[in-house]
Design brief:
It is a single chain. This protein has helices at about 35-45, 75-85, 100-115, 130-135, 140-160, 220-225, 240-255, 275-285, 295-305, 335-345, 350-355, 370-380, 395-405, 405-410, 425-430; strands spanning about 5-10, 50-55, 90-95, 120-125, 170, 175-180, 190, 195, 210-215, 230-235, 265-275, 360-365, 385-390. The protein is an alpha/beta fold and about 425 residues long. It has one domain (about 5-430): Luciferase-like domain (TIM Barrel). The longest helix is centred in the middle third of the chain and has 19 residues, at about 140-160. The radius of gyration is 22 Å and the shape is globular. GO terms for molecular function: monooxygenase activity; oxidoreductase activity, acting on paired donors, with incorporation or reduction of molecular oxygen.
Length: about 425
């Protein structure tokens, strides 16, 4: 059995996760609609031996600030695939807005284009402006969205598997291109979809794309346990992260799958400096560049789900403002983690909390040694199999991490020194699940 190693994934958020990233002197302000920018990030991450470059998605123009998402992920991942040869590429595509046959065909096409390096991040979408763009006056409730998602994944994987081994013949002498007896319709009829199949494409070099999932709700955990090869999570503290990690692995086992067949990867926001003080100065300098509608306190209030006018910047956050109704007070849907974060930071003022720029994922601001030690602790003590990393600026934050943190992780023996696998499934240790 090969040695367990850390999975590192860059979340490609145009110019960077910090709201001022696009305004910095070294930034590309056109990043959100510049395919060359995304291709360059993928090349840099590949040089740093990252497992994947990941693209989130939404289908509407944000009403404020810099529009971090613009290009369609399918089109953008094609450009990223053409610019690289080893790094995995994962893109979000919604089961609420997209039909499973189109999803299956698009990601199978990308998997062929990339030589078996593609992953599909299954999302259900819950933003009303997105729904309006797809004709939903009201989006389906959470239970319905996840039921629809589970059915969609069943359809997509059945389509990917509809060509059996040996179906692709390509015998130019006999004139037989395919053995149609080995290409079977799926004839799926469910509550939400009716799909005949088969897919018009043979399996890619890795059989089927990797399946990832993000979402901490009960429905999201169940969807991940049934289908996902990797799951993106939000975890602000190590103790509850270990508990969530254990529960997800147990849920996977209840579906008859090996707990080792799924990688749990919390999101983190690292800022690297030669010292912690230098890293904090970097964030402070970014925070000084305040957009007209996106100052840190307003963004913090939006994340927590409260009126910024009700906050005194120089006093601790008033916990009585929180409501424990699911997504009500957390724009990212992780209300338990939000409350725990605020409770543990009652000694800090709202202004200090807002300066963290926290948006549902853990900030790591410090020296390369501090950050590497932190990642090692989470990895070795059952809190994470890897991380999805949001950098304050791109490509600058990514380059600093690769230059200073990656060598330390390699010295600790928990991160690769070269790519040893050809496909993304091989890298995550999840072989193609043939019948």
């Amino acid at each position: 059995m090969s040695k367990r190693t850390l999975h590192l994934n860059v979340n490609v958020i145009s110019a960077g996760a910090h709201p001022a990233a696009w305004r910095l002197p070294e930034a590309n302000p056109r990043a959100f609609f510049d395919p060359a920018h995304y291709a360059n990030i993928a090349k840099i991450a590949e040089a740093g031996l990252f497992d994947t470059a990941f693209m989130a998605d939404n289908s509407y123009l944000h009403p404020e600030g810099y529009p971090n998402s613009g290009l369609d992920p399918i089109v953008t991942l094609s450009a990223m695939a053409a610019a690289t040869s080893r790094i995995g590429l994962v893109g979000s595509y919604s089961t609420t807005f997209h039909h499973p046959y189109g999803i299956a065909r698009s990601f199978a096409s990308l998997d062929h284009l990339s030589g078996g390096r593609m992953g599909w991040n299954v999302v259900t979408s819950r933003n009303k402006p997105e729904g309006l763009n797809y004709g939903f006056t009201d989006l389906p409730d959470r239970e319905t969205r996840y039921a629809r998602a589970a059915e969609a994944v069943e359809v997509v994987t059945a389509l990917w598997d509809s060509w059996k081994p040996g179906a692709l013949v390509l015998d130019t002498t006999s004139g037989v291109a395919v053995d149609r007896g080995l290409i079977k319709p799926i004839d799926f009829v469910g509550e939400h979809y009716s799909v005949a199949g088969p897919l018009q494409l043979p399996p890619s070099p890795q059989g089927r794309p990797l399946i990832t999932q993000a979402g901490g709700s009960e429905g999201g955990v169940d969807l991940a346990a049934r289908f996902a090869d990797a799951v993106f999570t939000s975890a602000l503290f190590i103790e509850p992260a270990r508990e969530s990690y254990r529960k997800l692995k147990e849920a996977v086992a209840r579906y008859g799958r090996s707990p080792e067949s799924i990688a749990v990867m919390p999101g983190i926001n690292p800022v690297v400096g030669s010292t912690e003080e230098e890293a904090r100065r970097r964030i402070a300098e970014h925070n000084e560049i305040v957009t007209p509608v996106g100052n840190p306190i307003e963004r913090f209030a939006k994340w927590v789900g409260v009126d910024p006018d009700g906050l005194d910047p120089d006093r601790p956050f008033p916990l009585e403002l929180l409501k424990s109704t699911g997504d009500t007070y957390s724009s990212v849907g992780f209300d338990t983690a939000t409350r725990l974060y605020l409770e543990r930071n009652q000694h800090r003022t709202v202004r200090e909390l807002a300066a963290d720029g926290r948006q549902g994922h853990r900030n790591l601001v410090g020296s390369a040694e501090q950050i590497a030690d932190d990642l090692e602790e989470w990895f070795r003590t059952g809190a994470a199999d890897g991380f999805v990393i949001q950098f304050d600026t791109l490509p600058g934050g990514l380059e600093l991490f690769i230059e200073h943190v990656v060598p330390l992780l390699q010295k600790k023996g928990i991160f690769r020194r070269e790519y040893g696998e050809n496909t993304l499934r091989e890298r995550f240790g999840v072989p193609y699940p043939r019948e």
